[in-house]
Amino acid sequence: MALRDLFRRGRPAGPQPEGVTVRLKPHNLPSERRAGRVFPGFLWWGLLLASAFYVAAHFSIVTGVWPQHGTSPGAGGTFIRDGVALAAWFAVLVALRGLGYRGSWALVVLPILIFSITRPTQFQLFTDPAYQATGSARARANDLKATRARLTSIERAYSEERRAVVYQGTPPEIPDPFARAEERELRSRGFFARSAAHFSVFVAPFALLVGFLLSREPGVMRWVRNRRLIPFVPTLGIFFVLTIGFTELGKVGRMTPWELFLPIFIVIWAATLAEDAYNLARPGAVIEGRRLLNLFLYGAAPVIPFLIIRELGLSIVLAGSMAAMLLVGTRRGWWAGLMLVVWAALVFAAFNVDERSATRLELAYDPYKDVSQMTEPQQEAWAAKLHQMKLFDANVIEGGLLGEGPGRGHAETAPNAADDGFITAIATHWGWAGAVSLVLLYTLFIVQLLSAAARESGAFERTLVTGVAMLIGIPFWLATLGGIRLIPLTGVATAFAAHGGAKLLASAFAVGLAAGVSHRRAREDIMDEALAPPVAGPHATGIRIR
Predict the structure, then answer these.
(1) Residues β-bridged to residue 255
(2) Computed over its alpha carbons, how large is the radius of gyration of the chain?
């Protein structure tokens, strides 16, 4: 035996039979492909390209935009946070591979692609020196930003002789943007709120992993189905306490923690439908007292707190998700018609009773109101709201077809450009081409979730994944269409694409639940195939090498 034979893996000692050695690559093994253990090539390349884009866009903003516009205090921490977040997403993919994930890889990779494409825009907005400033501080920050832009333009474009003519003496000192980026972030929010805003970005990948670990085991989901009151009652109680205590503010420390409750309500509603789907599909059985009580308790009660705090957008998200789950669980079209009637009545009431919703409707379709009939405070409030919408329009127009580039343009001038108007900020930086590409990618993600739901045979799993798809898809379309003023609705955070720590955590956890269900389906399919009797019939003889 030669010495090199000792280092040849899998080669037995002794004489070898004559013939041709054929080595098959893992991606050509049918069992591996069916098991879902092979990372699809197109997703792998998409992930690499998105990661390269993520790093290049951040680098371009730091080297090209920061010296020109300056930075906000704590911008350095935001830069480090985004770097850790990208590493965390890759760590979760490695962990899923190590745990033997066999489900659809598109369910976990597409959110990472969306995050990687949109996060540089969020990074530019939250490191801008004026975006988060308020009141007189915002005016002062804008003035300093404009002065810095003029001075850096003179330093970059003027010759030494022309600079001497302009300055007429010693040139003014330009503060170092990187030194300010290292300053500690000081805001009106407390330590917990600041920490949540930072940590949620790189905790979200692990929230996805937790959701996967919980839903991949049938025993955990079975426990939830059998004892759904145990998680439901405390969650709903905390929800009511928060909304009643913070009715006027609509937020807790400038956060919306009730976003974290939405996946819990979706899981419990799926368990309710799975238990009684047959009877809920029969009109005569629906009107029984116990069944009506379950519908109100698990289906209507979670929506009430949103109506208390006048969150029309989130109430539509939760109610729409539950309605879609009810339709999928019962497979009865008359439920859809009934839900549309109820939804239309609620929207009509909101736009006629709620002042904020009525104002949004007027701004969308009748922006030029007669201000002579208003008091001075009303005029100022109306002008501020109208100004925001016009800045959204300006962002879309400014971007043109291909946009201004990473961090370029003036997307940060629009209030809530990172939240309600995220699509307009994307349009500023990447133009209509970038905005449409994001819409197509997000739509593909939602389609993948719905496809995973369609592959499920059990009522619980099918309705659960449908609810996750709606919980993520409805806010995206509401925010996108509201940002470009096709619908009179704002205030809804979009998962993985817009700012919102609680929304990001809740959506990542929900995607993990869907990934766990997909993993179980793939594993059960493999077992069914292994236990199936062999199919009799003629078989071709020979070997096929690809």
Answers:
(1) 252
(2) 28
